[in-house]
Design a protein that fits this description.
By secondary structure, the chain is mostly helical. The chain has 32 helices and no strands. Among the domains are: 90 residues, no CATH class; 221 residues, Methane Monooxygenase Hydroxylase, Chain G, domain 1.
Length: 927
C-alpha cells in the first residue's frame, strides 16, 4: 500500500507539474516531501509547493519517451531471460513421483493441491500485472497535460485500458499474438477510411448527390463483408470492425457543406485525427501490456513450455511407475489405484492442451530465430509422443481392468517382475535424456553417443523381458499358444504394451541421434502463407460470417436511424458493441447472450458508479488522483483475476473489465448533471439493444446443438464401426478413419453436448447429457482398443502418432494369411458387423428420440448379439491356435512377435464386445 500511495502522490506531482508553465522541477520528490505535500493538499485543496509545469507536448514527449525506454528494457529482459536455464525443481512433483510408487491416491491428491496452488499464484501475479498496466494506461486520463494533448490531437483514449485488459494473456507470446491482431485490425480500419476519404473527402454533406451516399453504403457493405468472410483471425476482425463501423457512421452522417470531419483527406495522412489516433493508442496500449508482462521478470511462453514439459514428463513417469506397480501387485488394492491412475491420466491429457498453447505462443517471442526453431519443434514432437504414450497407458489401464487373474497369473508375474522393473528404469532414463536434448534444441556428439548407448540398453532390456516372459509362460501355463492364450492373454497384452512404450521412447531417441535440423517458420514465410480468400469457401466459416454479418448490419441500421427518440440517429455505439461481441463459438445462443447482457450492462453501470465516486472530490485534488489510480488498480486486478479463475463466468468478467474501465476512465467533467445521467442511461440502452439484436439473430440462425450432438454421435458410431470391421480383414486404414479423425469426432460430440445442455428446451425433452457422457467414455475406450489392434498388426506404436510416415503404417504380412486359413474368420467378421450395425441403430434411435418413451420403445428389444460374437471369436481362437503351434515362428521381441500380436488381437476382440455391450446397456439405462 505504501508503494501504491507513493505512485499516486508521484502522479499527483506530475499532474501539478503539467498545469503551471513556469520552470522545470529542480529535484525529484522524496517520500517524505510527497507524503507531506499530499496531506497538505488534502486539507487545503491546493498545492503550496511552487514547481514548474510541463506543457501538453512536453508531457506527451516525456510519457512516450518513458514508455519507449521501458519497452526497450523489456525487450532486453526478454532476450536475457529466454536464454536462462531454469534450474528450479518442482518439489511437489518430485514428491508425487515418489509417492506414486506406493500410493496413487495420495500422489493424485498432492498433484491436485499442487496444481491449485500454482494456478492461484499465477492468477494473482497476472492480476497484479494487469492492474499495473491499467494504472499506466489510466495516466492518460488522470494527468491533465497528457489528457489535454490527446484531446488536442483528437485521439479517443476510451479503449486504452480495454485493450490492456482484453489482450493480456498468460504469457508474452500469447499477449503479443492478440496485440498483433489488435494492431492489424486497427490499421485495417484506418486504411479503409483513408482510402474512402482519399477518393471522396469529408463524407456525405447536405447538398451532395444521393449517389455519393449510395457509394458510401456500398463501400461499407463490401469492406464489412470482406472482413467478415475473409480468413482473418477473429481478433483482427473484431478490432477492425469496431472502429470501421464508427468511421463509416461518421462518413455517412449528413454534415453542413465545408465542415471538416477530422479525417485524412486526398490520400494524405492527418496525424491529428481520430482514425490515426486509434493506431497510436493501440500501439501505446500494446507497449504498456508488454512492459507489464516483461518487468521485472518476463512471463515467457517459451520458458513456461520448457518447464511444463519437464513437469509433464515427470508426471508421466509417475503414472507409468504406478501402472507397472499395479501389475506387479505392489500397490495393494489395485482397484482404488486404477481409478486414481485414470484420473491422473485424464489430468495429464488435459495439461497437454495448455502446453501446446504455450508452444504455439512461443513463436511470437523468438520467431524461430537461431536455435529456437529446433527447440519449438522438439517441444511439439514431445507433445505428440506424450499423447502416444498416454494412449498406451490408457490401454494398459483397460488391460488391468478387464484382465484375468488367478494363481497361474500370480506365478507368472512373480517370474517377470524383475525384467519388467529393469526395462522400466532403462526406458525412463532414455526418456529423461531425450528431454535434456529437447531443452537446448541441439545434440552434441557426446549426447548422440550417450543416446545410442541408452537406446541399446533399452532394446537389450526388451529382449531380456521377452525371453523371460516366454520361459515364465511355459512354466506357469504350459507350452502351446492356445493354452497360454486362455490363461495368460491379459499378461501377454500388458507386456506387449509395456514394450511398445519402450519402443516409442526408443524411436524418439533415434530421431535425436540423426540430428536433423528443424525447418523454421519465419515472419516472411508466415505472411506469405496467409490466404485471406480461403475463408470464402469454408462452409463452417460461411455460417459464422453470415450470422454475424446480419447481426452487425442490423445493429448499424438501427443506430443510423435511431430508436424511438431514446437513441438518437447516427449512433455508432450499437454496431461498435456488436463488433466487440463477435464470437466464433455457436453454443447455446440464450446462454451466450445472457452473458453478454451481464457483462455489458453490469460493466457500464458499475463503471458509471465508479466514475461518480472518483470525481466526487473534484478534478484537481489529491483524493481525485489517489482514488482514480487506486480504484483503477483494484478494479482491474480483481476483475482480471476473476476472469482467469472462473470458467462459466469468465466471458462475463471479460466484458465487465472492458466496458467498466471504459466508463470510469472518462475525462473528469465535474459533478454529473442531467445530461451526463441521460448519457449513462443511453449507454445502457445501447448495450441492451445491441445484445437483443444479437440474441434474436443467434436464436433464429444458430442450429440446435442438441441435434448437432445427436448427428455427431451417429456419425462417430458409423465411422468407428467401419474402422473396426475393415481392419479385421485388412492392415490398411480406411480414408478419414485415422486416430486423429476418430478423436476429432469424439471432441465434436463432447463440445456439442456441453452446448446442448445449456440450450432452452421449451417444446422438446431435456437434453440427455448423461447418455452423451457415457458415449464419450465408451468411445474413448473403443478408440484405444482400435489403436491397440493397429499396434499389434504393425508392431509399432509410433505408427499411430500424428505425422507418422507411411512406411510405419504397413502391417505384418504374416498375420492375415494365417487368419485366413481358419474357416471361422468369416463368421467372426459377420458377427462383429451385425453387432456394430445394431449399436449404430440403437444409438441413432436413442439420441434422436423425441421422448423417453420413444427411446424405450426403440431400444427394448435390442440385442447386439454379443454372446454370438464371443462364441465365434472362441471358435477362431481354437482354429488359429492349431496353425500357430504348427508354424515355425521365429521368436523375437514381444512387440515385434507374430504370436504375441495374435494374442493381443484376440484380447482386443473380446474387449470390443464388452465395451459395446456396456454402451448398449447405457442406452437402455440413460433414456
Amino acid at each position: 500500500m505504501k508503494l501504491l500511495l507513493l505512485f499516486c502522490l508521484t502522479a499527483r506531482a506530475l499532474a501539478d507539474a503539467c498545469v503551471d508553465d513556469t520552470a522545470l522541477l529542480q529535484h525529484p520528490p522524496t517520500w517524505s516531501s510527497l507524503q507531506k505535500a499530499g496531506l497538505q493538499q488534502h486539507k487545503a485543496g491546493n498545492d503550496p509547493v511552487a514547481r514548474t509545469r510541463m506543457t501538453p507536448p512536453q508531457a506527451a514527449a516525456t510519457f512516450f519517451g518513458a514508455v519507449g525506454v521501458l519497452l526497450i528494457v523489456s525487450l532486453i529482459q526478454m532476450r536475457k531471460y529466454i536464454n536462462t536455464e531454469d534450474n528450479l525443481e518442482d518439489a511437489s512433483t518430485e514428491k508425487t513421483q515418489r509417492l506414486a510408487k506406493s500410493n496413487m491416491s495420495l500422489a493424485l491428491a498432492m498433484d491436485i493441491d499442487g496444481d491449485r496452488k500454482a494456478v492461484q499464484k499465477e492468477n494473482t501475479m497476472l492480476a497484479l500485472r494487469a492492474g499495473s498496466a491499467a494504472v499506466a494506461a489510466a495516466s492518460i486520463t488522470f494527468i491533465p497535460a497528457l489528457s489535454e494533448w490527446f484531446a488536442s490531437m483528437n485521439y479517443d483514449i476510451s479503449y486504452t485500458c480495454v485493450l490492456v485488459l482484453w489482450c493480456m494473456g498468460r504469457s508474452i507470446g500469447a499477449t503479443v499474438s492478440d496485440l498483433w491482431d489488435a494492431n492489424v485490425g486497427t490499421m485495417m480500419a484506418f486504411f479503409w477510411i483513408w482510402l474512402l476519404q482519399g477518393i471522396l473527402p469529408n463524407g456525405y454533406q447536405y447538398g451532395d448527390a444521393i449517389e455519393k451516399w449510395y457509394v458510401g453504403i456500398v463501400y461499407f457493405l463490401v469492406t464489412t463483408l470482406f472482413m467478415m468472410f475473409g480468413s482473418w483471425k477473429n481478433g483482427v476482425r473484431v478490432w477492425c470492425l469496431s472502429y470501421h463501423v464508427g468511421n463509416m457512421m461518421a462518413w455517412l452522417t449528413p454534415k453542413a457543406p465545408g465542415v471538416d470531419d477530422g479525417y485524412s483527406h486526398n490520400f494524405e495522412i492527418k496525424l491529428a485525427g481520430a482514425a490515426f489516433g486509434y493506431c497510436v493508442v493501440t500501439l501505446l496500449a500494446s507497449s504498456l501490456t508488454v512492459i507489464a508482462l516483461s518487468l521485472p521478470n518476463p512471463r515467457m511462453a517459451h520458458r513456461s513450455a520448457l518447464n511444463e514439459m519437464r513437469i509433464a514428463s515427470r508426471q508421466f513417469e509417475s503414472l507409468l511407475r504406478c501402472t507397472t506397480a499395479m501389475y506387479t501387485n505392489c500397490l495393494g488394492d489395485a482397484s482404488v489405484s486404477l481409478r486414481g491412475a485414470k484420473i491422473f491420466q485424464d489430468r495429464l491429457v488435459d495439461s497437454l492442451g495448455g502446453l501446446s498453447a504455450h508452444i504455439d505462443a512461443s513463436w511470437w517471442e523468438h520467431y524461430d530465430m537461431g536455435v529456437f526453431a529446433d527447440v519449438r519443434q522438439a517441444l511439439k514432437k514431445h507433445v505428440i509422443v506424450m499423447k502416444g504414450l498416454l494412449d498406451i497407458t490408457a490401454s494398459l489401464h483397460d488391460t488391468l481392468e478387464y484382465g484375468v487373474t488367478g494363481e497361474q497369473h500370480n506365478q507368472f508375474v512373480a517370474e517377470v517382475s524383475q525384467p519388467v522393473g529393469e526395462l522400466l528404469e532403462q526406458t525412463v532414463g532414455l526418456f529423461q535424456s531425450c528431454l535434456q536434448c529437447m531443452a537446448d534444441g541441439s545434440v552434441s556428439d557426446e549426447e548422440a553417443e550417450s543416446l545410442r548407448k541408452l537406446v541399446k540398453n533399452v532394446e537389450a532390456s526388451v529382449n531380456t523381458l521377452s525371453s523371460s516372459t516366454r520361459a515364465a509362460a511355459n512354466k506357469s501355463a504350459g507350452e502351446g499358444w492356445l493354452v497360454q492364450q486362455k490363461v495368460l492373454k491379459s499378461d501377454w497384452e500388458f507386456l506387449f504394451l509395456l514394450c511398445s512404450v519402450s519402443r516409442l521412447v526408443v524411436d524418439l531417441g533415434k530421431s535425436y541421434i540423426t540430428r536433423e535440423r528443424s525447418k523454421s517458420v519465419s515472419v516472411i514465410s508466415s505472411v506469405r502463407s496467409f490466404n485471406v480468400l480461403s475463408g470464402f469457401t469454408d462452409p463452417a466459416h460461411q455460417e459464422f460470417a453470415i450470422r454475424n454479418s446480419i447481426s452487425l448490419l442490423l445493429c448499424w441500421a438501427v443506430g443510423y436511424n435511431g430508436l424511438f427518440s431514446l437513441i438518437p440517429p447516427y449512433t455508432a455505439g450499437i454496431a461498435s458493441n456488436a463488433s466487440l461481441l463477435m464470437s466464433t463459438a455457436v453454443g447455446s445462443a440464450l446462454k451466450k447472450n445472457v452473458g453478454r447482457v451481464q457483462g455489458l450492462v453490469v460493466g457500464t453501470t458499475l463503471g458509471s458508479l465508479i466514475y461518480g465516486g472518483i470525481i466526487a472530490n473534484g478534478c484537481d485534488t489529491s483524493l481525485y488522483y489517489i482514488t482514480g489510480f487506486g480504484t483503477t488498480f483494484l478494479f482491474s486486478s480483481f476483475v482480471f483475476y476473476m476472469f482467469l479463475s472462473t470458467t462459466e463466468y469468465s466471458f462475463v468478467f471479460y466484458l465487465l473489465a472492458g466496458f467498466g474501465s471504459q466508463k470510469f476512465l472518462s475525462k473528469c467533467l465535474g459533478e454529473p448533471g442531467q445530461v451526463e445521467m441521460a448519457g449513462y442511461f443511453e449507454s445502457i440502452l445501447i448495450a441492451i439493444v445491441c445484445v437483443s439484436i444479437l440474441a434474436m439473430v443467434d436464436l433464429a440462425m444458430t442450429p440446435s446443438a442438441g441435434e448437432e450432438s445427436a448427428g455427431a454421435a451417429t456419425s462417430f458410431a458409423k465411422t468407428l464401426s467401419k474402422a473396426i470391421t475393415f481392419q479385421m480383414k485388412d492392415c490398411e486404414v480406411p480414408k478419414n478413419h485415422s486416430k486423429q479423425h476418430l478423436t476429432a469426432g469424439l471432441v465434436t460430440i463432447r463440445e456439442k453436448a456441453s452446448e446442448a445442455e445449456m440450450e432452452p428446451h421449451i417444446f422438446s425433452m431435456p437434453f440427455n447429457g448423461a447418455l452423451f457422457k457415457q458415449i464419450d467414455e465408451r468411445g474413448k475406450s473403443l478408440i484405444i482398443q482400435l489403436l491397440t489392434y493397429r499396434w499389434a498388426l504393425r508392431h509399432s506404436a509410433t505408427s499411430t502418432l500424428e505425422g507418422a510416415s507411411d512406411d510405419l503404417k504397413h502391417g505384418d504380412s504374416q498375420i492375415f494369411p494365417l487368419i485366413k486359413k481358419c474357416a471361422s474368420q468369416e463368421s467372426v467378421h459377420d458377427a462383429f458387423a451385425h453387432m456394430l450395425d445394431s449399436l449404430e441403430l440403437t444409438l441413432e434411435s436413442v439420441v434422436s428420440a423425441h421422448s423417453a418413451l420413444d427411446g424405450f420403445r426403440a431400444n427394448q428389444d435390442t440385442d447386439t448379439g454379443g454372446q454370438k460374437v464371443l462364441a465365434a471369436v472362441d471358435g477362431l481362437r481354437n482354429e488359429i491356435g492349431v496353425y500357430i503351434d504348427k508354424e515355425k515362428i521365429e521368436f523375437v521381441a514381444l512387440d515385434k512377435d507374430l504370436d504375441v500380436s495374435i494374442h493381443v488381437i484376440f484380447t482386443v476382440l473380446e474387449k470390443y464386445v464388452k465395451i459395446i455391450e456396456e454402451l448398449n446397456k447405457d442406452c437402455q439405462t440413460f433414456i
